[in-house]
User: Fold this.
Amino acid sequence: MTHSCGTCAKRWDQVFGPSGPRPVGDYRYRVHKTNGQRDPGLSFPLAGARDDAGERRQANRAVAVSAVGLAVTGLVELLLAVLTGSVGLLGDAIHNLSDVSTSAVVFLGFRLSRRPPTEKYPYGLERAEDLAGIGIAIVIWASAAFAGYESVRKLIEHGHTSHVGIGIAGAVVGIIGNQAVARYKMAVGTRINSGTLIADARHSWLDALSSAGALAGLVAVALGQSWGDPVAGIAVTLFICHVGYEVTADVMRRLADGVDPEVIVTAEDAAGSVPGVIHAHARARWTGRTLRLEIEGWVDPDLTARDADALGRLVAGEISRRLPEAGSLTWTTRAAPV
Assistant:
């Protein structure tokens, strides 16, 4: 039986095209979309949507400025470390220069994360920012191993430190340079909710502590305590290990979809407070700088699909008010038991 209704023909053309079904490999028609968008969360937009392009510009600027600043600081310290023979200053210089390499890793992570969702990567590559954090953690642990080895070697071999005054000046340069870079990256990372940029800022803050340790060791040498420099190097190594542990734990928590439990409680309370939602269950995870919420709402089983979607938009409004850091919401309705 054939049917020539104009409305049905129009719908057929919208789905299959005017000349029959589309090729199986045609992604635009093979993958289900809502309103032309891949992400179902876009059906329930949150009022606090961020300026992704603007945030990327801020992040890239922070990475570039810090890379230049740390490269200059690290090279100055490295030259002075070679001149003075200070292992504390050498460890600090190597750590500063390692920050330049982590800046490159962070930049690559931001570049990859802007790629749109595909069938193979339905959430896009936002997680590339989180994976960049692994590179930062690896560099921190490598720096700890190198600084520790050099410090213990000098302590055992009773190495000599010369030109102490110049070395002290280099350590002061390291403290100032690293503090300035760390504060800048931390401010930008906190503003755009970038865990990777915050981890990189903590790495730079660690370098400032390393410089302070090197300074303390050189002051001890100037006071006639030759053991001061290698002992300071060991102390710097312990600081590096401490921050390395914290950075690694933060990165692994994000990659394992860990979130603050308060986020789940707030999301469920917000959804449950909307009239018509009998009960709500929430899950959440970070992908890069995006906090993604998935909320199941139990509603009246007689509620129409249109009304359920309208209810989801009300939930989105309440989520925006109570969880302004949320960047995506996927709303699913469930029929409440009768």
Summary: Strands lie at 279-287, 290-299, 326-335.
